[in-house]
Amino acid sequence: MAILLDGNSLTLEQVANVLYRNEKVQISEQAWENVKKSRKVVEENVQRGNVIYGITTGFGKFSDMVISSSDTEELQINLIRSHAVAVGEPFSEKVSRAMLLLRANALAKGYSGIRRETLQLLLDCLNHGIHPVIPSQGSLGASGDLAPLSHLALLLVGEGEAIYQGSKMSGAEALKQAGLSPIRLQAKEGLALINGTQAMTAVGVLAYLEAQELALTADKVAAMTLESLCGIVDAFAPESHQVRPYPEQQDVAARILSYVDGSNLTTRQGEIRVQDAYSLRCIPQVHGAIYQVLRYVEEKLLIEMNAATDNPLIFSDSGKVISGGNFHGQPIAFAMDFLGIAMSELANISERRIERLVNPQLNDLPAFLSPDPGLQSGLMITQYVAASLVSENKTLAHPSSVDSIPSSANQEDHVSMGTTAARHAYQIIQNSRRVLSIEAICAAQAAYIRGAEKLAPTTKELYSQIRAIVPVIEKDRSYSKDIENVASWIKEKHAAQGVVQPV
Fold it and tell me: What is the dihedral of CA 368, 341, 212, 379, to 10 degrees?
């Protein structure tokens, strides 16, 4: 059964189903009625010659210039063409797909004045797997994602480029091959298609979905590291976490204890040392705080996914047309910066655990987990790679949302940079996944040296999964492919399982 869009109830699970399983999408009957009523208000205002931003006026600084009703169609196509100036590498097809879905959901709310046939074509492109080629750089995040969304809109008028059935072609050819026809934009429609936050939100949703799986995997990898270093389990005792009652911290502590239950490698206070280093002892506190961020980000994404973020907004019940600022991406900019910081810390503490696994001054294992220390370097340089990625993350985690550059002759004098924040957060997640992959490889090698049969049942299963990807290190080799293969495995776990809510 197809997912029904009404502009108000789209969930992350549904987005995941559309992105990863190509589930079909339809507009609910009530939403179609709302779209119809909103469109009627636009047409009435055009007929009366009322001066309304973006309908009978120019855009941005040109908002004071009145446009003849006979030129409204040309005004809209000129808008799309002139604003489609994004640059850089294109967004992935999943991001492009998410943008189609989220823009359709926003228009289905019935506050944008779009025609039924235009919204239907947007849905048809999504359902047929026609993905507009959208360059990833060039959005200020207010007035929405103008440049990226303009590239999306070009597809609907038979221009621009698209990916269809694995091949890049013109937008016109993609529509033709799918048996679809381009539309001619009418009053307000160009603005309705491009004035919104769907680029930053699309990237944000994808980043969030991948970050969830990465965080859950990090808990399990950290548990195997704890065992491989004969870590002390007392620090995870529930009493310690009940007196600092963050539920996420308590959940992580309980998970770690469950993962190492049955281990013959973990220790108790005083058996070999009294305390572990922070990167082991403080896993619940650090990972728990990361889950707090994930929950914050989830809340903001759910609101934004079901919001009307264009301008002006059409209120059919009252007939009002209100020029406001819902296109401003500040809430998502903050959320994405916060997500980037959190995922940087996930990698940061992971890299410190890697150091404890390979540094002979910090453990009783062979130096750098080498099969023949000195003659063979073992996993020495994997820690360098992790350190490099962590350092890069620190640069990427500088908040984009603290920046603003005026545009449109100072009419648009404060912007969010939310799309930059989302892009950086996504890149941080890719880097952090590779850091975690290095920890997994090092922890598995340390467990092999200790005796993998001594692992707890849960971590032994993880060990077997890693071993299916990365053979035991018996002599030096290049580990680049090993790292990338483990990273791909972690990423694909989400696609296979769907949305995994933080617990």
Answer: -10
* Per-residue model confidence as pLDDT tens digits over 40-72: 999 988 888 888 877 778 776 676 677 777 788
Averaged pLDDT for residues 232-258: 98
Reading the block at residue 432, the tokens are 């952090």
| Residues facing 322 on adjacent strands | 313
Cβ neighbors of 83 (< 8 A, separation 6 or more) are 146, 147, 150, 194
Q: Is 53 a known active-site residue?
A: yes
Chain-centroid distance of CA 366 in Å reads: 39
pTM above 0.85, yes or no: yes
Which sign does the torsion angle of CA 193, 198, 199, 200 carry?
positive
Domains along the chain with CATH numbers: 3-196 (1.10.275.10), 210-406+414-497 (1.20.200.10)
Token duo for residue 145: 């994602």
Which residues fall within 8 angstroms of residue 247, CB to CB, at 6 or more apart? none
Query: Half-sphere exposure of 345 toward its Cβ, with a 13 Å CA cutoff?
Result: 18
Mean pLDDT, residues 324-338: 96
CA 442 – CA 158 distance, rounded (Å): 52
Q: What is the mean pLDDT of the chain?
A: 94
**Residue among 20, 53, 296, 463 flagged as catalytic:** 53
